[in-house]
Specification:
Layout (H helix, E strand, L loop, with lengths): L5 E8 L4 H20 L4 E8 L11 E2 H9 L2 H16 L12 E2 L3 H11 L4 H16 L8 H11 L3 H9 L15 E4 L3 E4 L4 H21 L2
Parallel strand pairs: 1-2
Antiparallel strand pairs: 1-5, 3-4, 5-6
């Protein structure tokens, strides 16, 4: 199967959202399968960081206390974390939510991602994105901390001068998004899906998007 059409995928996410980590994992699998099915299609992936909790103070907050206030009790937190961990495990991701000590303010991390995006190197951007998700959900690292972000960026090969510029911008407020929830996937500006969808569903949406575009192009020829 092949088509010469272009597929643009816009993805809105936040680094403190475990469903975004799961969704990114599923999306990567779906995109790989799509490229195999439609090798002539140009796939453009555009990531949009969304700061879900901009009011978290710059140093962050105690993670356990934050979620107990949010969900009402330690037992409610335990049940929610169990649900998230099981969902992640079902797609091959092992989370260690017990290792997280701080609920970070993600502004610095978002500025870093936006600066890396200007380099136009998707593989580098996604390597950093994967490292940030893993740092938070699997290693309990503070992704709101400037020194930690510098270390993580260096591990995946982000030039130090790019990190310098991103950290200089850290006082400004990251852009917000009109989407109601994350992760949110938009295919060719038409079809939208929210939530950590199964790879098969994402693949179906990608295939449908290019087939609809191909059909429209044929109708106008």
């Amino acid at each position: 199967m092949s088509t010469g059409d272009k597929l643009t995928i816009d993805i809105h996410f936040d680094l403190i959202c475990p469903w975004c980590f799961i969704g990114k994992h599923q999306f990567t699998m779906a995109r790989g399968k799509f490229i195999g099915l439609f090798p002539a299609t140009v796939v453009e992936t555009v990531w949009h960081p969304v700061q879900l909790l901009p009011d978290v103070p710059e140093p962050g907050l105690p993670f356990a206390g934050f979620y107990e206030r949010r969900l009402g009790s330690a037992e409610a937190v335990r049940q929610r974390q169990k649900q998230v961990a099981q969902a992640a495990s079902s797609v091959g991701l092992d989370l260690d939510l017990s290792a997280i000590e701080r609920m970070p303010n993600t502004a610095r991390a978002h500025h870093l991602l936006r600066r890396v995006a200007t380099l136009g190197e998707l593989a580098l951007y996604e390597a950093l994105l994967d490292r940030l998700f893993a740092a938070y959900f699997q290693r309990g690292e503070d992704i709101g901390d400037a020194a930690t972000l510098r270390m993580l960026a260096a591990e995946v090969g982000v030039p130090s001068q790019v990190v310098d510029v991103a950290q200089a911008d850290a006082g400004s407020v990251p852009a917000t998004s009109a989407v109601e929830g994350v992760p949110n996937f938009v295919f060719n500006g038409r079809l939208s899906l929210s939530g950590a969808r199964d790879a098969a569903i994402l693949l179906m949406a990608m295939s449908k998007s290019v087939q609809v575009l191909a059909g429209n192009s044929g109708a106008g020829s």
